[in-house]
Write a structure and sequence with these properties.
Blueprint (H helix, E strand, L loop, with lengths): L3 E2 L9 H12 L16 H18 L5 E6 L2 H13 L3 E6 L2 H10 L4 E7 L20 E5 L1 E2 L4 E2 L10 E4 L16 E5 L10 E6 L16 H6 L9 H17 L1 H22 L3 E3 L10 E6 L7 H10 L2 E2 L10 E4 L6 H18 L1
Parallel strand pairs: 1-13, 3-4, 3-5, 5-8, 8-9
Antiparallel strand pairs: 2-10, 6-7, 9-10, 11-12, 12-14
Helix pairs in contact: 1-6, 2-6, 3-4, 6-7, 7-9
Length: 356
């Protein structure tokens, strides 16, 4: 039985990306070698890297002056690489969830950090509004989608200083005006590829301005100079990223992906609002299209485990909400078909007829 995969990450990938990766594990493009054993210095792998970079730029309309890197360490390593490379006077951060808070904490090891605004007072159930970005800061860091709480910044904000965005969980889910950012980064394991590779889109002119010495491996200029191959890159995840980028291009690009995500989000949010057994957990204007969080209404709280068991029987996985929020979380990433969302909505309706 094929599962309806609502996992928050690692998460669902396009079927053809998985199939083509499986073929490459057996034999990469007729080379007689697996992608697992081919040299990253070979022409065959260099072609994979070059095409992945080119397709990333094509799908997001990334301007020429930006570099695309594929690195290791996850977004968590970027939390320290960013201030290591960019924080001279002070950094400014928007605190909208667990990962934003972790990024802020790492930056504090390198100098002064300003917490511009936070929604922690209401368990991150909304996005801060009407805050002032300090113009004397070196950069302003935001987390565009908050996987645990289900809020999302879905518009490219105007920022008077270099803007840096962690887009781990909503990259390629909508068109982005990359020119408004100095850097976009994230772990690949939501919308781009499997765990093990991190993408970085960076404007080169923001580098080389700090006075501290930077370890070679943690210096973005090292990886730009070496084309993401200063050390052995995560070859298999990069190959799968390429296959996912091909799939996005094939089905109509990021604009088409956005339309699909909006349709999935409307379908599920409409049911959450209609069904008397469920309710959302975040402000409507700040709701994520990637991680849709909801809980049982108070009078039905004791049926939460029953509903979870019911969805599992129907082949749904990954719906349990994070422990800090509770309830349910449907991660509706790019590759999740609308049929899976329809199945969840049908389950909610059927559960209502039995218990409401």
């Amino acid at each position: 039985m094929k599962k309806h995969n609502f996992n928050a990450g690692p998460s669902i990938l396009p079927a053809e990306a998985i199939e083509n990766t499986a073929k490459a594990v057996r034999d990469l493009n007729g080379t007689g070698m697996s992608i697992l054993e081919i040299s990253h210095r070979s022409k065959d792998f260099q072609a994979i890297m070059d095409e992945a970079v080119a397709l990333f730029k094509d799908n997001l309309n990334i301007p020429e002056e930006y570099k695309v890197l594929f690195l290791g360490g996850g977004a968590s390593l970027q939390f320290c690489m960013i201030p290591f490379n960019l924080l001279e006077k002070k950094g400014a951060y928007l605190d909208t969830g667990v990962w934003a808070k972790k990024a802020l904490k790492e930056a504090q090891l390198f100098g002064e950090v300003v917490n511009v605004a936070s929604s922690s007072d209401k368990n991150y159930s909304y996005l801060p509004k009407n805050y002032n970005i300090p113009t004397d800061a070196d950069y302003f860091h935001i987390t565009t989608n908050n996987t645990i709480y289900g809020t999302e910044i879905r518009e490219d904000i105007n920022c008077p200083i270099p803007l840096i965005a962690d887009m781990s969980s909503d990259i390629l889910s909508r068109p982005v005006d990359v020119s408004k950012y100095s850097m976009i980064y994230g772990g690949a394991q939501k919308n781009l590829g499997p765990a093990g590779v991190t993408f970085v889109i960076i404007k080169e002119d923001i580098l080389g301005k700090v006075t501290r010495k930077i370890p070679t491996m943690l210096d973005y200029r090292t990886h730009i100079k070496e084309g993401s191959m200063f050390n052995t890159p995560p070859c298999l995840p990069i190959f799968t990223c390429l296959e996912t980028l091909k799939w996005i291009k094939k089905i109509g690009g990021v604009q088409k992906i956005q339309e699909m995500n909006q349709a999935k989000g409307k379908l599920l949010y409409d049911e959450i609002e209609r069904n008397p057994m469920f309710k959302g957990t975040v402000a409507k204007e700040d709701r994520s299209l990637m991680n849709i969080c909801f809980i049982m209404e108070d009078k039905y709280k004791d049926l939460e485990a029953n509903f979870m068991d019911y969805t599992k029987e129907l082949g749904m996985v990954g719906l349990k909400g994070h422990r800090s929020v509770g309830g349910f979380r449907a991660s509706t990433y790019n590759a999740l078909p609308i049929e899976s969302v329809k199945a969840l909505v049908d389950a909610m309706k059927e559960f209502e007829t039995k218990y409401a």
